[in-house]
Amino acid sequence: MADSPAWTALAPADPESACPIGPVVDIVFSRWTTPILWTLNMHGRHRFVELERRIAKITPKVLTQRLRQLERDGMIVRTYHPEVPPRVEYEITELGRSLAPLFAHLSEWAATHLDSVERARHDYDTDVAR
User: What is the CATH number of the domain that holds 73?
Assistant: First the structure.
């Protein structure tokens, strides 16, 4: 029965086929990835401590993890300067910069629709019939 056409029609699609942007969401929209990319795109090259100060509430451990992943994904480049003391800078790459139009559209969507989302949440949370 598992080989019948009806079975294959009802089989769940693999997540990437069901939503082709899933891998992009995984890369770009991890909790701290977007603020890091936004900061580097808007304000240019930063040292670790500068990023840490600019992105409130991120821990050094998480910042390190996210920066390594973004470097691995080709979104940022890490430059080591062998000085005393050593200096490391992070800069967005052209690949990372190519996300700027997407971020601009999301920023516009947020400005237009977040109030509606908040109202919907409030209405949902205060609905006594729930």
Answer: 1.10.10.10
Note whether residue 111 is domain-resident.
Answer: no
Outline where 73-99 has alpha helix (H).
Answer: 94-97
Q: Does residue 106 sit within a domain?
A: no
CB atoms within 10 A of CB 128: 4
Structure token pair of residue 29 = 């929209």
Q: In which domain, by residue range, is 38 found? A: 18-98
pTM assigned to the model: 0.77
Averaged over successive runs of 10 residues, the pLDDT of the chain (130 residues) comes to 52 69 85 94 96 95 96 97 93 96 93 97 88
Q: Where are the alpha helices (DSSP H) in the chain?
A: 5-10, 15-18, 22-28, 33-43, 48-54, 60-72, 94-97, 100-126
CB 77 within 8 A of CB 91: yes
Residue with the two structure tokens 């600019």: 54
